[in-house]
Amino acid sequence: MALTETVPAAPAHEGILRRQSLRESAARTYARSLPIVPVRARGLTIEGADGRRYLDCLSGAGTLALGHNHPVVLEAIRSVLDSGAPLHVLDLATPVKDAFTTELFATLPGELAEKARIQFCGPAGTDAVEAAFKLVRTATGRDGLMAFSGAYHGMTSEALAASGGAQHTSVVRLPYPYDYRCPFGTGGERGAELAARWTQNLLDDHKSGVPSPAGMILEPVQGEGGVIPAPDGWLRRMREITAARQIPLIVDEVQTGVGRTGAFWAVDHSGIVPDVIVLSKAIGGSLPLAVIVYREELDAWQPGAHAGTFRGNQLAMAAGAATLAYVRANGLDRRAGELGARMLARLTSLAAAHDCIGDVRGRGLMLGVELVDRDADADATGGRPAAPELAAAVRDACLDRGLIVELGGRHSAVVRLLPPLTITDEQADAILDRLADAITAAVRTTPGPMGSSPTTLRGTTP
Fold first, then answer.
1. Per-residue pLDDT reduced to its tens digit, 15-26
2. Which protein family is named in the record (predicted)?
3. Does this model's pTM top 0.85?
């Protein structure tokens, strides 16, 4: 009798990934570039179903200020569950909501919190962006909006209309300061000043074709746009320009908030006080929550003007209040600024060794490495052409080394680092060690454009 050869069964995680690709839509994103199946997580670390451990520098796209499953977050959630409190209450008042709102207002710029109103929106940041647009249109009686090149504000129709790359007749695009790829070819303070003058002239020129808008929306650091921090002086100019013309200023702090940039809110660096601030991601302590906070004089809504079934997420409010309090009590915003500066300094040294790194930048623990074609000359903006294929290779090499990163920027050529605010110095070093090793590996194996030789380290030969 012939022996039959037993074929080993495929690991369970491979079946999960296969079924995901068959069942889920073509719109899935992170799952395409991160073929892992997380089953456990704590702090910076994720464990996959395959038994491998990864350092997570994606942090739920900035949602996990305290990392995965932080004890204070878990305790806050358990307390609500054990109390017998209702989990779904629409927009009714509850002790949990009151505690969250009180903690949130304690962190906001005093001038805003003193006479502010809060609107709980649908559970995603894009819902809050939509609410902000609706609010300023109602308050001003105007329709148009001003937004910035490279922006990202969400995936609903109006939020997309205000994001970079979209086309919308009621949204006017403005230049955003970007030192490495300055739209005016100059960069620095001069580039930021020209961007501010452009905006001011557009509003004051009666023949510009741009009527007075209902509001202006900006990100203090463009995240998905490539980790581009706005200069503090430019932010102050935008505040002056909008205030002088009675244009509400909306600041999108969905990704920059809760200590991420080295201040509790990114606007704290410049000292500006927006008319509307859009908040989500980290304010829910890893659970879905989104709000807008705005000056009371803008509160011209009628009852029901902006609603939504899932505005009363009690677990998210409890987790969010615990997260806000923990960041505030432990100075994690200051810690993010100090550690981020050290990481940026090391990334700068890494750029000096690799001519495929065009720029490194960031603020706090929101860092970016822009990869470029080393063989090309700088273009009219002052930067060399982006290298998205190399960036993808670096991302994949990072995953091979147990490091999860994402890509952003105009051409998906910026490697982004968004670690939790709770990481240690040793963990920060491990992140950068793995990134450096991944870049070295990727530049040796990724062909350059038009079939040229692979990108190499400075000072080496191909």
1. 999 999 999 999
2. Belongs to the class-III pyridoxal-phosphate-dependent aminotransferase family.
3. yes
